[in-house]
């Protein structure tokens, strides 16, 4: 008697230019059980290609999505230092960052400015928008190769600097970012995570943190353009938004901004170049309700395109990786 092993999801993956690798499956009666059964094959897909979109899983609610997230990851993370507020649906399960739907969230690697970053991002679409709203992806090694060396060499030498000014109007508030409003606890977190901080006379907080712009993938060793230099820079903001924020908060009080690691401003031309290279190498596929996407957060940048209508995409960050394990171009020392 011979037995036939079940077909692997690897056998049915579609590869099309300009689209992420896509696996189409029939809606299983038990999605978490399906995820557990195919966990290793799906993670192998992500390891090989940087991401995979799973279509037909039929995810409909938070409980089902969280159960799938847990079976595909080694552990869900609690977000710290968020740049924009999120709704918490369950422990480790969040809404997409609250960002104006008519404005894009440009390519970035989640929490690239922290010392411990998600190795894996998981997205589950419960409600697809009427138009737009795709989560685009771009290979970080390809982006690095396509950028001019005169740009990448400077960032490799200096790293990049993120400056933040916390307020209750734009971006994450102090409590949303640090999980507490206690000054002592915030200061201890900053010291432990190599973040310079300065309390302003009005009680608000400003911070600076310098990080490497290029890392090596901890498993493959591939060099990756890993940062949020363009996305969190003032020149990526819509012109009217930038002008308003500077008028209200001053040039040094923007909710977030990025600079060269030595502190020099980054020109608009550099930011436009980064975003242009990202766009050239973006793969995208419109969401359908029930979809699941897995993204290697170090190898693959992701974005969120403008949309119309209701959009509900759940997000989980998982499989934490220490930046110190990714061959940073300079050492970051916590105090």
Automatic annotation (TrEMBL):
<keyword id="KW-0408">Iron</keyword>
<dbReference type="InterPro" id="IPR003819">
    <property type="entry name" value="TauD/TfdA-like"/>
</dbReference>
<keyword id="KW-0045">Antibiotic biosynthesis</keyword>
<dbReference type="GO" id="GO:0017000">
    <property type="term" value="P:antibiotic biosynthetic process"/>
</dbReference>
<protein>
    <submittedName>
        <fullName>Protein AmbD</fullName>
    </submittedName>
</protein>
<feature type="domain" description="TauD/TfdA-like">
    <location>
        <begin position="29"/>
        <end position="316"/>
    </location>
</feature>
<feature type="region of interest" description="Disordered">
    <location>
        <begin position="1"/>
        <end position="23"/>
    </location>
</feature>
<keyword id="KW-0560">Oxidoreductase</keyword>
<dbReference type="GO" id="GO:0016491">
    <property type="term" value="F:oxidoreductase activity"/>
</dbReference>
<dbReference type="InterPro" id="IPR050411">
    <property type="entry name" value="AlphaKG_dependent_hydroxylases"/>
</dbReference>
<dbReference type="Pfam" id="PF02668">
    <property type="entry name" value="TauD"/>
</dbReference>
<dbReference type="InterPro" id="IPR042098">
    <property type="entry name" value="TauD-like_sf"/>
</dbReference>
């Amino acid at each position: 008697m011979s037995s036939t092993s079940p077909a692997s999801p690897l056998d049915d993956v579609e590869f099309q230019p300009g689209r992420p690798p896509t696996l189409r499956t029939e809606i299983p009666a038990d999605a978490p059980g399906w995820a557990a059964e195919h966990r290793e094959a799906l993670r192998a897909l992500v390891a090989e290609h940087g991401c995979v979109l799973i279509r037909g899983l039929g995810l409909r609610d938070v409980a089902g999505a969280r159960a799938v997230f847990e079976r595909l990851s080694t552990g869900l993370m609690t977000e710290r230092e968020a740049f924009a507020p999120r709704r918490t649906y369950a422990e480790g399960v969040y809404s997409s960052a609250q960002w104006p739907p008519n404005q894009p969230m440009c390519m970035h690697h989640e929490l690239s400015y922290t010392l411990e970053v998600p190795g894996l991002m998981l997205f589950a679409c419960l409600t697809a928008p009427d138009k737009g709203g795709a989560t685009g992806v771009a290979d970080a090694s390809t982006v690095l190769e396509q950028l001019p060396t005169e740009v990448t060499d400077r960032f490799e030498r200096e790293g990049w600097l993120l400056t933040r000014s916390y307020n209750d109007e734009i971006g994450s508030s102090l409590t949303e970012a640090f999980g507490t409003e206690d000054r002592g606890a915030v200061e201890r977190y900053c010291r432990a995570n190599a973040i310079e901080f300065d309390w302003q006379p009005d009680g608000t907080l400003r911070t600076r943190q310098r990080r490497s712009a290029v890392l090596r993938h901890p498993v493959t060793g591939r060099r990756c353009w890993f940062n949020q230099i363009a996305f969190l820079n003032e020149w990526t903001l819509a012109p009217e938004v930038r002008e308003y924020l500077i008028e209200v908060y001053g040039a040094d009080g923007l909710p977030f901004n990025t600079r060269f690691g030595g502190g020099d401003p980054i020109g608009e031309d550099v930011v436009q170049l980064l975003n242009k290279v990202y766009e050239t190498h973006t793969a995208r596929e419109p969401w359908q309700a029930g979809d699941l996407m897995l993204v290697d957060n170090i190898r693959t940048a992701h974005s969120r395109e403008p949309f119309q209508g209701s959009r509900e995409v759940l997000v989980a960050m998982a499989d934490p990786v220490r930046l110190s394990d990714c061959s940073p171009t300079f050492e970051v020392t916590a105090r």
